[in-house]
Amino acid sequence: MLARTGSRVVAVARPAQAEALRRGLVIKQDGDKITAKVEAVTDVRHLTPESGDMLVITTKSQATEQAVKELAALYDKDSPVVCLQNGISNEEIAARRFDKVYAGLVFFSAVQLEPALITLPRGRAIAIGCYPKGVDDSAQRFCDDLTRAGFNAVASAHVMAMKCSKFILNLNNATHAITGYWVEQGMDDLDMRALMYEVRDEGMRVLDAAGIEVEPPAGEPSPIRVRELNKKLKEPLKTPGEGASLPEERRTYASMWQDLFLGRKSGEADYLNGKIVELGKKLGIPTPYNSALLKIVNRMFDERLKPGIYTPAELHALIQSGAVD
To answer: Where are the domains of the chain?
Structure first.
């Protein structure tokens, strides 16, 4: 979408993805279809650094270390790097090799179950800021480019706090992968809502104890406020049955659901639920929900299982019983 509005974009991608990018991706959004072609290579070494380049990392967290290493072998240390990713550890990894690192919040959903087709069911929000805090001209210019490309982009000094809010929401990526529920279906199911509440609440208690801000200060503009969102899981359903009956093109599938469905070898749970488990151990805080989700979803990747091995009620009962090994 950046390329369609005049920015020069060169993607580094796996062969099938690179081929789809070069031939033209179909993007479905709001009932419309657009086609976008993008320059693409399959190896960082095929890039030619130019003045003014901005490096944007969009890999899953488990691939960040290698991506940063490859970029650092080609680009100067003062090259700007944006971590447009889920999780809260990627910026720290990038900052070990680059001096100008930017945090990027992606607060919209994308479904890509085949290389040449992307569906954007909902949301367009992006936030960019300096890591660990602050805003500069580069962040603002990138936001201006993203706005022209059709996103609701904002430069903010509090992007890492926003990313912590998204991080809490992403803890339930594993919940959706295990149960096989798409996001709207889960929001329409009382058992799933109760389970998601506990997973989020546990994560927030750990981050609070660690002194990590889970959302920007009161009064600061933010597209996401996780404490309020979690309270809403306790509210009565407004439109029972609506989420479970959505047509395919309007469904939001969590990224971990997509990874399992497509038979990928690994997922991001170690950098999401695993982060909560790790911090919980350091702080002496039990994390039965995130520990169980981590074990189960990693086993699913190891055994090449598809999404949907437990119902929400079965999964919740299993966690409460302490029987997850």
So the answer is: 3-157, 166-321
